Amino acid sequence: MNEITGWLEVNVQGFNRLCEDDLREISNFLLLWSLFEARIMDTHCNVSKICKKVEQWEKDKPLDIIQFDQELKYFQDRYFRDDEITYHFCNLKFGKRDQKGLVRAVIKGEKNEPRDKIVAMLIIVYRYRNNLFHGEKWRYQLIDQIQNFKTANSTLKKLLEQYGNLENG
């Protein structure tokens, strides 16, 4: 435990219920998101830029969606169950420009183009980012978020490995 997590445990109700794995995945997410935004999104991300970036990748070469099967399945299982959109989907807190309809169609299996799938996954990860950075995830004390962040981290790592120009510092 470091000084900040110790302070949070003392001062924030429920924080002490987070395990080390939870804290590690959240910390990893912060680092990976920052790197993703710096290396891929020119230090400023929004849904429009996500869509344009994925379109650019698709023009350069066919998108390898198979490597994201596990992540996509997680998102589909979390947000669409028993032929219904789950309450978790509403808790993503989509903004007006966040392509909620596209994400919903991918989650339901109605849109299957690789481009649409990658865009939808990145929008979900972007919603995690916004909900974490703007405090929404503190409403439930960051509890039960570990798999969300593990999946987001896996998605970001794969995209950074392919498109992040990591060998150049």
Structural notes for this entry:
The chain has eight helices and two strands, in the order H-H-H-H-E-E-H-H-H-H. A hairpin with a 2-residue loop joins strand 1 (80-81) and strand 2 (84-85). The chain has 169 residues and is mainly α. The chain starts with a helix and ends in a 6-residue tail after the last helix. The chain has one domain. The protein has a two-stranded antiparallel ribbon.
Overall 3D shape: globular
Helix/strand class: mainly alpha
Number of strands: 2
Question: Regions with pLDDT < 50 over 5+ consecutive residues?
Answer: none
How do the helices and strands line up, and which of them pair or pack?
Elements: H1 3-11, H2 20-39, H3 47-60, H4 69-79, E1 80-81, E2 84-85, H5 87-90, H6 100-107, H7 114-133, H8 146-163
Antiparallel strand pairs: 1-2
Helix pairs in contact: 2-8, 3-7, 4-8, 6-7, 7-8
Quickly list its features.
mainly alpha; globular; two-stranded antiparallel ribbon; about 170 residues
Write a compact overview of the structure shown:
The protein has 169 residues and is an all-alpha fold. The chain has one domain. The chain has helices spanning 3-11, 20-39, 47-60, 69-79, 87-90, 100-107, 114-133, 146-163, and strands at 80-81, 84-85.
